[in-house]
């Protein structure tokens, strides 16, 4: 994915650190973003996402390290000399200016001619699909409209990079999902490099070329959404992205990267490197497992015996909850049809392919 971008090191944060009142918030953080890429900073509240974004914008000074944009060190420059666009969660439109004046604000500051400014404003009003609200004031707009205007205002001066801090978190779910898709396609059409802060994993998965998963001031994993979901690099990433069931196991043998693991008396195969006797956690996505009558699981699959506890209907699928032999809970996605044919309290074989088996060190926590 990254190879599709011409400059893989367009925005570079190198060994960036930040403390507040003696407390380290970011620790020697490194991040490289390609020109034209859409990158999300994803992590729980308080992990340092906004702090990093504000340092890129110049609203906060770095304590250590440098930030480079397009080959130029920007970390010492004031915000107005960085050519960055910023969109905040709370829209932050100028209330006493009309939509047209809001969008024109950054353009006028740059000294374009009136006709150029007007033409650019009109173009961005079209791009955000709101050509008819140009003369309104922000107070007469819905939250979704205000956020579209905030995006247009940030983009109109043609920034080198667009920074967005949880811009949709105040919107209801339907509108948020529509705006995610709309913004993604707008930014792709414009080819602008974007850094997007969110604590919402689905939002990050939907929108991003790459996701930097942050935890307590460090980046735990940086990769394409598919890779982060498919191959979580740590227990933190596993727990933060998507859902999984976790079984405690012990490594019985490793031969050339192929593991045999004992899980409550069942032998399970997976790829990985661990010495014999290591405690491991076997993690499984709900969509990667299937349910069969005992003894009839597909050839070559891992299986463990499980007892059906309950079923939860969630529309297109039913999530069935089972108890495994060591008391662990196992959630498996089934079609409502299939789930309806299972008996509560009965024992089944849960099966999954060795390639879909995620292995992490240590006992289940
Ligand atoms: N101006 C500040 N003064 C003191 N502490 C701050 C300040 N800004 C942020 N923090 C602290 O730094 C940590 C990271 O904050 P922030 O970057 O806002 O996290 P996030 O955006 O990931 O929720 C938090 O513990 C927060 O309380
Ligand atoms: Mg924040």
From TrEMBL:
Keywords, in A-Z order: ATP-binding, Nucleotide-binding, Transport
Domain ABC transporter: 11-241
Protein's name in the database: Putative spermidine/putrescine transport system ATP-binding protein
Organism: Roseibium marinum
Pfam family, one: ABC_tran
Molecular function GO labels: ATP binding; ATP hydrolysis activity; transmembrane transporter activity
Family: Belongs to the ABC transporter superfamily.
Gene Ontology biological-process entries: putrescine transport
A GO cellular-component term linked to this record: ATP-binding cassette (ABC) transporter complex
SUPFAM superfamilies: MOP-like (SSF50331), P-loop containing nucleoside triphosphate hydrolases (SSF52540)
Cited PROSITE patterns: ABC_TRANSPORTER_1, ABC_TRANSPORTER_2
Gene3D superfamilies per the UniProt record, alphabetical: 2.40.50.100, P-loop containing nucleotide triphosphate hydrolases
InterPro entries, sorted: AAA+_ATPase, ABC_SmlMolc_Importer, ABC_transporter-like_ATP-bd, ABC_transporter-like_CS, Mo/tungstate-bd_C_term_dom, P-loop_NTPase, Transp-assoc_OB_typ2
